[in-house]
Design a protein that fits this description.
265 residues, mainly alpha, two-stranded antiparallel sheet, 5 helices, 20% helix, 5% strand, globular
Length: 265
Amino acid sequence: MSQNKYLFVALLIVLSLVSADVAMSIELSNTNNKHNLSSTATHGGPHAASVASGGTDQICIFCHTPHSATPESTLWSRPDPSTTTFPLYNSPLVIAGTYPGSSGTEIISEYTDNGSVLYPSGASRLCLSCHDGVTAIGILNDGTWIAMTEDYVTNDTTVIDLSKSHPISFIYDTPVLTAINNLRPGDTYQLPQNLTVFTPLDGENKMQCTTCHDPHEDTRADTGYDLLPFWRHKGSGTSYEDVCNACHIGGAPPFSGTNHNSAVL
């Protein structure tokens, strides 16, 4: 077989694997995706009322707008979370984080917001504009209200408790990595490897909700193991742990359920 034929066969294998991976997840356009909040949604979660009742059959409108967007993200259309104060990760263990204006490495569990640093920040704050349990799903940044099938003022979305969730909105760079490994003898961490699965930090090198979750593709339907929703993975038998192992060397903590059980992190 010629070299070109070998390359062609290899390409077919890669494409088949990619296709299998995509098939594993529920795309946002699918009416069963929990982030599809349109009136056409068929899942059991919150969704818009009919168009005739003031709802909408549009999908992207709940988070994005082509005009008069807020600067928090690309064409972002949701208001800031109604909750003004969020708890930090509550654990006797510590995670290091550097912040603007700090004298060096601080401990995130002891860090208090003095007004100079927004916490949570970035994409995590955007997630909390729905998942704070207070902000109505149907309200947009310009004051427009989309009618929902029920009154989701304290909405029916999963409320993210940051005191129990994996630490977020902290800078994760080489100095912080060194500090964490020094503070946690016996444990070993690394910066995200992005080898088996893509686990991106944001533009400020901060770990955010989107490091582990893709808000557009719901992988909860995958079988064989208990997955968090919208979990970044590749559909293999170890893909739940693949996300954790991008930073945690030597095996993932035994997370369970959908509330980021991080008591052993």
